[in-house]
Amino acid sequence: MKLVLYGDVRELMDGVRTLAPELGIEVTEGEAGDRNAVRLQVQRRPGPIEVSRSGDEGTIRFAEKIHFFRALGLFVEESRRADTFNLTEEPQFTTLGAMIDASRNGVLKVESMEFLLRKMALMGLNLVMLYTEDTYEVEGWPYFGYMRGRYTQDELKAIDDYAYQFGIEVVPCIQTLAHLARALQWNAFAGLRDTEDILLAGSEDTYKFIEDMIRAASAPFRSKRIHIGMDEAHALGLGRYLQLNGYRKRFDIMNEHLRRVLEITDKYGLKAMMWSDMYFRLASKTGGYYDLDALVPEDVIADMPKGVQLVYWDYYHDDVEFYEQFIDRHRRFGSDPVFAGGVWIWGTMVPQYPKTYATANAALTACKRKGIKEAFATMWGDNGQETNVYNALLGLQLFAEHGYAEELDEEKLDRRVRFCVGPSAEAFKDLSRPDRPANIDLHPNYVTNLTKWLLWQAPLIGLFDRHAADMDLTGHFPAIAERMARYQKEYPDLAHLFAVTEKLCLVLDKKWDLGLRMKAAYDSGERDRLRTIAEQEIPELQQRIEALREAHRAQWFSIYKPFGWEVIDLRYGGLLVRLKTTRARLLQYVNGETDRIEELETERLHFDGPRREGHRLPPYYHRWDRIVSPSM
Description:
The protein contains 24 helices and 14 strands.
C-alpha cells in the first residue's frame, strides 16, 4: 500500500520510515503525490485517537506521538480488510510500557532492543524501563559489570535515539541499595558492602559510588526520570552496618539512605522513583509485602523524604479488590504510585500465560478504576534468563490493549497481536502448555514450572521424582512438540521461539519419568530393563538434549550478547555428564561390577518437605542449584 502523509507530520516521518518495511507500505510526504496512493491527513490535537478512511482519503487524529504510531498500525491493519472504516480509541494511561531485565545474564543486543521498540510502537506503548543492576559502564569502576555484557554509553544512547523517533521514553532503572551481588562479589567493592548484595548505608564512600552510578546511568538518555530500585533489602543494617553502628531501626536507615540518594538525583535534575516494598515489609511482622494486617506508621510516612514516586509491583493476585486496596495504601504516602505488573517469563523454561492473564487483567482493571495513569509490565529473567524475552510479546500486547479501552476486547487483542507481532495469541499461549498438562486441574493463577525441574534434575537422585509420580504425562509432550513444529512453518520470523519449545518437549517426553522407571526396575531386580535404559534410552536422550542445547544457543546468540550464556551451557553440560554417570552406574550394576546402586535405594520424598503431603499439584521451584542437588 502506498500512503501520502500530510499535515502534522514533521516530527513523525523518521519513525514512519523506520516502520514502513515492517508494515509493508511505501510512504511519501506532502499533499501532492501518486494518484494510486491513499492520502492520509495527520492532525495532532488533544483528545482520543481517531482513525478513518473513505476510499483514497484517510485521517489520523492523535494527541501524543506514540498514539500516532498505534493509529498508523490500526490504519494499515484495517485497510487490509476494507477501504472504509472509522475507529476511535480512548487512551487509559498517560504512560504505559515495559521493564526489560538486562541483569539476569541476558543483555539484549541493541538490534534486539530495536526490534522490541518497533513492536511497542505499533502497540502504542510509550515507556521502556531498562533494568540494569551492573550491566552499564561506570567510569572508574572497571569491575562493575565486568564480563557481564554491560552496555556502553554509545549503546544506551543508540537505544534512546531509536525509541525517541516513536515517542517512547527510555528510563534507566538501577539499584542504589540491594540487588547488587554481582557487583559486590569483587573485592574492589569490599568497603562498600553491608551484606553480599546490599550497599553499606551511611558510608560516604557509598554515596560517592552511587553518584558515579547515577551520573553514568542517566547520561545517555533524554528522560529526566530514573528508577533507583531499593527493593528487597531484607538484611538492611544487619551485616557490616550492624558491626559499625550497632542496631538501629531499619525504617530510620532506609529513610536516611533515601534522603542521601535523592540529594544526588536532585543534583543532576532527575525525578526519582523507587520500589515501594521495603516500607511495607518493614511494617509487617512477617516481612511480607502484601500483608493486609500491616500498616506503615504515620510517623514513618511523615519522615520519608519527599519527591520520590513509589512503584507498586504486584504480579501475584487475581482479584481486583486487592489491587484497589493496595493502591489506596500507596496513596497514603501522598501521591499516585506507578503500577508494575508482570508478564511471567521468569523461573521456568516456558512463559506462564494463564498466570499473566489472571494477574494483569485484575491489576489493570483496578488501575483504571482507581485512576492510576502510569503502569508497566515487568519481564524478569530470574535464575539465568532461561526463557527468551520475545516470549513475552503477547503479554505486552495484553497490556497495550488494556491501555486503549475501558474493558479488554480479547477478540481485538488476538487480531492486534497477529498484526503487530506475527504469531497468533493461540500460538503464544501454547508456549505455556508444557507446564500445564491437560489432565491436571490447574487454576489460571496457579504456577508450576515442571518443565524446569523435570529437565534439570539428575535421574539418579530425582529430587522431584515424588512429584513426577503424582502425574501421568504420557503423550503430553509429543502432542505439544507437533504444534510447535507447525508454528515454526507458520511464523518463520519468530520460529526460534517454537523450535526451542519443540526440542524441550522432545527431551521431556523421554526424561520426565526416567528416574521413576529406573528405580522401579532396580527395586524389582529387572536388570535387563536397566540395561536397555543404559544402552538405548540414555544415549537417545543425550542426543535430544544436545539438539535442545543447540537450538537454545542459536536463539540466545541471535538476541542477547554472548555473556551469560556460559551459565546455561554449564547447566546443559552438567545434565549431559550426569546422564553419562547414570549410564555408567547402571552398567556397573547390571555387569556385576557392583552389587548395589545406593542412589536408587534411597526413598524419594517430596521436594519441599512435609507440607507437600496430600498436595498433589506440581510445585514451582526456580533455583537450578537446588533442583540438581541438595549438596553445595
